[in-house]
Amino acid sequence: AVIRLKGTNKGLAMSTDCNGRYVYLNPRLGAKIAVAEAARNVVCGGGEPLAITNCLNFGNPNDPQVYWQFKEAVTGMGEMCRQLNTPVTGGNVSFYNETVDSAVYPTPVIGMVGVLDNIDQCTSSKFKDAGDFIVTLGALNGCVGGSEYLKIEHGKIEGPIPPLNEELEMGVQELCLEAIKKGIIKSAHDLSDGGLSVNIAESIINARPGIGAKLDIDRKLRDDELLFGECQSVIIVTLNEDQLYELILLAQGMDVHTQTIGRVTNTDQLIINDLVNVSRAQIEHVYLNT
User: Fold this and answer.
1) pTM above 0.85, yes or no
2) How far is 65 from 75, CA to CA, in rounded Å?
């Protein structure tokens, strides 16, 4: 969410994030990813990350495994916060979250706040205009470990989870924020739960009626990795065709990989290579009525 600050031209961007599956499979890395994703979401809204609060949910700390998960998660959270220069202003710890059989997934929920110096730079995830280019900031390296796809389609919660390169993460966020401030990009949406296909579907669903997307992607990934693989440090943006050169120059200066993967259309459909061809109405029905 982004809210304006009355009486000023500033805004506050806020996001809460955590993937409990990731933290269960790798507590330290999973917590780092939660902080990075919260910051990425704030950046996608046009805000510069400032600080976090947290809500740490774990089982019985007298259980050595649970206490180890807690220790590792807090360590990972601290490491990423130092990288982002976002202090932890407060938070709470909730232990003993368990049934007779098992504890909840270790879930350190991160609440990130950021500031927009100019509320006009507020950016949403919805696609805007047919003909706009769809571009990735960062490289698509879909990983099915710990993914929503692996859980839903195969009933498995198994790793390894996607790696996180902290320098790359910082570069992608810096590029996105700079492009927003320069007015280059029209929409920004980070890649997270569900992977690329879900990311694009959400941007279509939230767009005005009539909007769709057609993607043509040449990647050395399996079909399931391309469509539903999850990876870190990737933001999907849209922009006018005549702004593409400026974005590429900016990305090269920051040493961040970009790739044009498709266009926004006025067809009311989502098309990805020869793998997906569904109507917007089908996507909306599943998404809104599940």
Assistant:
1) yes
2) 15
